[in-house]
């Protein structure tokens, strides 16, 4: 694996519906040492409070040791202006702290709820800092999270929140489905100075719908993006949600069928090799 990307992880959304043991085993077989746990509302199934229990934490620690893996980030997407958001996010902060996770990645909310989200984040930021965590706001991929779509949106949010425990998580793949008029490379380069985490997601167009292939098989210019990411040593994860795609209006759809583990393994290996080639020539 290339040493030029800092802590290149695999986001477990790829394994939506599979047990953690199978997911962790596949990640290790594909040649990765890090993972991002994906507990994102609306994008993966079977989310419930038991996932954040003491027994769940112990189970994850056992699996990390079993497969010689580390976890560096937690997917926390939810409506950051929604009901019970503070309680739910605090649960994730404590869970992350117990696992030694620093980056809490979360998309935002609808534009009309932006101020409520800001009020909530002003409460949560110092609490996250107390636990050694940073809330990394992610540009949205569908209309439920259009309070942050562009570099300008993200930087303005950071200015208003003005707290060291709030940063950005950049996802170029999300831009294509929500704001196809934006230039992903231009947007990424503008946001990198404000980012503490990055999602490497490629996009394949099938008609007017958005699907997520192996890195390098899509339309995003990662040959330009990856060297800039490596230069800043920003932790990153490959987010390839095989069970989900987006419609032309950005609506996310989850398939009833699980993605086969063999397919995940193949895509992860091909993605790793493609990234190494793009970085090393």
UniProtKB/TrEMBL annotation:
<dbReference type="InterPro" id="IPR013022">
    <property type="entry name" value="Xyl_isomerase-like_TIM-brl"/>
</dbReference>
<keyword id="KW-0413">Isomerase</keyword>
<dbReference type="InterPro" id="IPR050312">
    <property type="entry name" value="IolE/XylAMocC-like"/>
</dbReference>
<protein>
    <submittedName>
        <fullName>Sugar phosphate isomerase/epimerase</fullName>
    </submittedName>
</protein>
<dbReference type="GO" id="GO:0016853">
    <property type="term" value="F:isomerase activity"/>
</dbReference>
<feature type="domain" description="Xylose isomerase-like TIM barrel">
    <location>
        <begin position="27"/>
        <end position="242"/>
    </location>
</feature>
<dbReference type="Pfam" id="PF01261">
    <property type="entry name" value="AP_endonuc_2"/>
</dbReference>
<dbReference type="InterPro" id="IPR036237">
    <property type="entry name" value="Xyl_isomerase-like_sf"/>
</dbReference>
């Amino acid at each position: 694996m290339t040493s030029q990307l800092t802590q290149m992880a695999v986001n477990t959304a790829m394994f939506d519906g599979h047990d953690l043991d199978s997911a962790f085993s596949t990640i290790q077989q594909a040649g990765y040492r890090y993972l991002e746990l994906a507990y994102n509302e609306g994008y993966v199934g079977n989310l419930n409070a038991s996932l954040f229990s003491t027994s769940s934490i112990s189970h994850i620690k056992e699996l990390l040791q079993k497969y010689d893996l580390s976890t560096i980030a937690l997917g926390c997407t939810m409506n950051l202006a929604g009901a019970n958001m503070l309680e739910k996010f605090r649960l994730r902060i404590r869970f992350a702290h117990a696992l030694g996770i620093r980056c809490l990645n979360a998309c935002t909310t609808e534009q009309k709820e932006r101020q409520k989200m800001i009020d909530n984040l002003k409460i949560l930021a110092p609490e996250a800092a107390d636990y050694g965590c940073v809330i990394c706001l992610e540009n949205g991929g569908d209309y439920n999270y259009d309070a942050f779509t562009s570099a300008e949106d993200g930087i303005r949010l950071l200015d208003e929140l003005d707290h060291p425990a709030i940063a950005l998580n950049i996802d170029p793949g999300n831009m294509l489905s929500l704001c196809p008029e934006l230039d992903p490379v231009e947007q990424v380069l503008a946001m990198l100075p404000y980012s503490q985490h990055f999602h490497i997601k490629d996009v394949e167009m099938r008609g007017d719908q958005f699907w997520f292939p192996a890195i390098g098989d899509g339309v995003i210019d990662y040959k330009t993006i990856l060297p800039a990411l490596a230069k800043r040593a920003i932790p990153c994860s490959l987010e390839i949600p095989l069970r989900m795609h987006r419609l032309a209006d950005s609506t996310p759809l989850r398939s009833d069928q699980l993605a086969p583990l063999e397919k995940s393994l193949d895509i992860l290996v091909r993605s790793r090799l493609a990234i190494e080639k793009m970085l090393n020539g």
